[in-house]
Backbone:
């Protein structure tokens, strides 16, 4: 449900960037979301369909690239990919690890048609 | 034409949260964001916490609910300032709602603000409100498997309160399995088994909180 509020902020920021560039429509919006975030693509799409009409993004294609979680072990220095649940070090079993990727949540790029 | 936007989705929320944070720092207030599902005992745990800490700290509560002022009334009955936020359907609190609530609190007269977020194990997870710590409450009837189903909230919480431990035998709650999955998700989180209604375990939890408040609020009034 909170995807509605996230999508509203996407549309506001996309609208501002597109207008600044003098665009007349947005054709593509690319999001990047880490797997450690509570963001479901289907819910984002649903929010997009509800919120995009009457904005420059109305007919845009929405895509979301997900980023696998990665951590670095503070004990042995190993850098490893993992799932949402396990982030202990696979090399030395240490629980002292720092997440270095997987919390991304941003608008990457958008594709626009400029006004003629 | 391609435009590089590179903008965080939570940018606006985070900027307003930073403003809240600046206000808390200015007044030396420690802020706790309490997360749990509906019925886990958020308000009861807050009331038990107030009972233990009210002589040491000046406390206020911000209540987030979709509707009604039932919760803030319970707090006010104890003579503690409480602000009710009605989200009108929204599933989580955002920093601009907190900013509004702060307008009606006398920040100079507070050491601790407890925010009771909307009952939900998913949506509030990613929203920073300017707090010092997020703490979640899981209640025994919800089951020991919840960390496996809702990992995010267990990962953002600095401490986890396991409430309603007086019902452990009735609900066949496997505390060992619960602790093992929490350790996997968030080894740094301390688990506090409590019963908000009988008061069991509340002292250890409030001791942790009091330590955090004392080390956290360095600004003198």
Residues:
């Amino acid at each position: 449900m909170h995807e509605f509020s996230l999508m509203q902020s996407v549309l506001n920021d996309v609208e501002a960037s597109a207008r600044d560039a003098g665009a007349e429509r947005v054709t593509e919006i690319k999001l990047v979301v880490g797997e450690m975030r509570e963001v479901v693509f289907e819910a984002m799409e649903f929010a997009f369909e509800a919120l995009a009409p009457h904005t420059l993004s109305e007919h845009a294609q929405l895509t979301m690239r997900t980023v696998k979680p990665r951590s670095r072990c503070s004990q042995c220095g190993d850098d490893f990919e993992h799932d949402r649940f396990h982030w202990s070090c696979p090399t030395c079993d240490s629980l002292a690890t720092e997440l270095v990727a997987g919390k991304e949540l941003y608008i990457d790029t958008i594709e626009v048609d400029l006004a003629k | 034409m391609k435009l590089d936007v590179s903008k965080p989705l939570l940018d606006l929320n985070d900027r307003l949260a930073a403003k809240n944070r600046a206000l808390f720092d200015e007044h030396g207030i420690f802020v706790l964001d309490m997360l749990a599902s509906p019925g886990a005992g958020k308000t009861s745990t807050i009331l038990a916490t107030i009972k233990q800490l009210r002589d040491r700290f000046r406390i206020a509560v911000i209540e987030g609910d979709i509707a009604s002022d039932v919760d803030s009334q319970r707090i006010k009955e104890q003579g503690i300032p409480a602000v009710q936020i009605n989200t009108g359907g929204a599933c989580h609190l955002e920093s601009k709602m907190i900013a509004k609530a702060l307008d009606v609190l006398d920040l100079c007269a507070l050491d601790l603000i407890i925010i009771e977020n909307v009952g939900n194990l998913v949506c509030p997870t990613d929203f920073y409100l300017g707090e010092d710590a997020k703490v979640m409450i899981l209640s025994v009837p919800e089951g020991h498997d919840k960390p496996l189903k809702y990992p995010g909230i267990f990962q953002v919480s600095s401490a986890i309160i396991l409430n309603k431990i007086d019902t452990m035998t009735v609900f066949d709650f496997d505390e060992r399995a619960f602790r093992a999955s929490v350790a996997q998700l968030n080894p740094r989180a301390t688990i506090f088994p409590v019963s908000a209604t009988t008061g069991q375990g509340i002292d250890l939890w409030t001791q942790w909180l009091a330590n955090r408040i004392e080390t956290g609020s360095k600004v003198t009034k």
Observations:
- Chain A has two helices and six strands.
- The two ends of chain A are 38 Å apart (CA to CA).
- Strands of chain A lie at 23-34, 61-67, 70-73, 79-81, 97-101, 105-114.
